Task: structure prediction
Amino acid sequence: MINQYKIIKRVFTLSMILAFSSCSTDETQTVVTFKNLVMADEFDVDGAPNSAMWTNWIGTAFNNELQYYTDREENIKVEGGMLHITANKESYEGSGYTSARIETKGLFEQKYGRFEARIKLPWGKGYWPAFWLLGADIDTNTWPCCGEIDIMENRGQEPTRINGTVHGPGYSAGESITKSYNLVGDRFDTGFHIFGIEWGPQYINYYVDDVLYNQITPKDLPVGSPPEYLSNGCLKENWNRWVFDDQPYYIIINLAVGGDYVGSPNAETVFPQTMLVDYVRVYQ
Amino acid sequence: MKNIKFIYLKITLLIGLIFSLIVSCDRDISDEAVLAGFSTAGDVFIDGFTGGLDYYPFGDSYFEAFSVDQETKYDGDAAMRFDVPNEGDPSGAYAGAIFRTATGRDLSGYDALTFWAKGTQSGMVNEVGFGQDFGDNKYQVSTSLQLTTNWRQYIIPIPDASKLTQERGMFWYAEGPEDGKGYSFWIDELKFEKLGTIAQPRPAILKGEDVSQQTFIGSVSTLTGLTQTFNLASGLNQTINAAPGYFTFISSNPSVATVSESGVVSVIGTGTTVITAKLGGVDARGSLTLESLGNFTPAPTPTQDASNVISIFSDAYTNRPVEYYNGYWAPYQTTVGQNDIYINGDNIIKYAELNFVGIQFTKPTINISEMTKFHIDIQVQGTIDPTDYLIVRLADIGPDNTFGTSDDSSGEIRLTKANLNENNWASIDVSLSSLTTLTGKSNLAQVIFVSDATITDIYVDNIYFYKIPTTPTVAAPTPTVPEANVISVFSDAYTNIAGSDFNPNWGQATVVSQVPIAGNNTLKYAGLNYQGLQLGSSQNVTGMTHLHIDYFTGNSTSLNAYLISTGPVEKAKVLAVPTTSGWVSLEIPLTDFSPVNLADVIQFKFDGNGDIYLDNIYFHN
Result:
């Protein structure tokens, strides 16, 4: 277990709050059980994100996204107790938009636990904010073989809905295991909401605020034999296998613009806009 | 949209009565009780009307448009049904009404009016909203509504619910036929709701545009394009028209212009100000920058009698229908501006960045064949160079009423520095007979201005055609000089010199008569070549200073008046003709007639042409 950075600023009592809250489906439902805080970034120091915790992804990314990720202050900064990731509409390095993506690869990686963040999302067609995890061995065990856990991703044109998803060999992209959560009488762009998972052997529980809305286990994975040729380089013996007990994962927070998942922004999409992150916390 | 007039038609609903009976209950309020505010009920029509709701159709609408339908409904027992009449239905050509409560409701806890609707066809309902109460309509909201033939839910967000603490206008709509045909639509489950998903308010004035204008003291204009836009749970942006009452308007320099609560901008001083607005604390997109140049001199007020005028643009006359004052003809036109200046009660056209621009009136075209003259007032802003020009072109599209066909014709007036004034009005009067290429005058369709950017900024006012009647319709002005100061030759107002001969035989062709004009005896010279007037006796007018003559002629192109003393010694005075604005009252200093012997005046003479009317010929001091 890698656990170098305990940036713990305050003791948080979310679990107590959650315990007192009535759950939507079952009075006895337990949303969170991991309560030992092992890492937190409260984004309390103005400036660039803590470089001991995060690195910036620079350049373009995947999925036909339109943005160029930078580490400039206009795209990413910590200010007023929040991480600000701002997407701008501007010509930059051949792209029409700029934004930012930070990740803890090589700096904080962990298998199992409770990963959560308190985030206020941008809004409008073409925004694609995400809080997610990738298998730490991605450089040698290429995606999707390494596994991916999307704690939260949102289409800007769906202001009341987020998705929680896992990707792995045999169940990635369009075949990923996903479930959406719809806020009733509220939106994700008008206030902060807590997005989290509790992840243990053979299960991942997804929650938003005090609502546990999904559990993914190996039973949810597809069955069947691998195709003759695996273009993505995954091992055939891993096909349709639960890869979330294998290794530690690292955290990624980003705000993409456009791409296959959301489509391009339209004339009504407002730029710039900022994804605000109040904190990221990990418990065991 | 039609003009909506209020006719008091009230259908009090039974539920209202029942409701008021049920709630009557006697009990003293306790010390802790807080005074009750207005009802916070949100339901408007679920399966019937909620208490206290009345239905008022618009005055010229089809009164039977609304009914409660128990067959077709989205949910429950009944829905509201609206039957839109066919085009031209004598009992009302459109459907429209407001639904108003007798006392206001407190809607401040809601964020939208929601309902389910469907139509017999996928019509576009012109206007649907709330906040219209046949009072101030202070918080009126409207939007258009695209129906489908299946039930669909619609959301009309409240621009700023904190304003609606005692709102009476629960719902209103107006819809005309689609392609001339009537149809029906239904609305059900109509209610105010707190959805919690109405977000990202983005109010706007002037459709979100930043507009700059030059203006003058006295200018009054109303801010338009007032909207509020929200993002809905569906991810779609919903824009609604919001009444000025939702906005707070700000003038950056109130000594230049003020903005009323209803969005009326009044220019009161010289300088620059920026008009902006907020709605619910959010800055509205769009602004109006006004540069007030100070006082404005209006164009001369037209004096033609309205019965002789066909007007296209003038506050002095009733104007013919005009489709537009600027057609924004793509792709080469640069001209901006139209009839959007209103100063001290006077509407004025302003064109800027002029290269060419047209005013069009084809619905219907205008028949000017009875008219003889064209008038227009133009003020050029800035300097006029010797090579600058402004062509005013009149275009007729012929009996086929179609542009670009062989029966079209047009005529041009070319104006230059000689005809126009820098920063001052020039009144242009042109005889239509001089426009020889304008062969058709029965289907006039356009007035076009062409400067090819030599002159770029102009004001235009009083565009009209007129005729000069050959017979005066009113009497000459009644003289006001006291009789004691007058030696009168011909006037009903005075005792005239006795024994004058108004038609001495001097061999003239002129036909002389005395005709009553509006009851006033008037001297008429028909077919003038020359005409004498023999005074009854020699007059010594050396004690007088002026000769007064009222004259009128619609068709003369030459007219001279002569005073004659024994000798004969005579001297001509040229009279301006024709009299384009009715009677002309002329005061001729007697010194103008030198060397005529003013102690021995014996005759008058007129020569020239046309039909001349004369009255009130007298000497006075």
Remarks:
- The mean pLDDT of chain A is 89.
- The first strand of chain A starts at residue 37 and ends at 41.
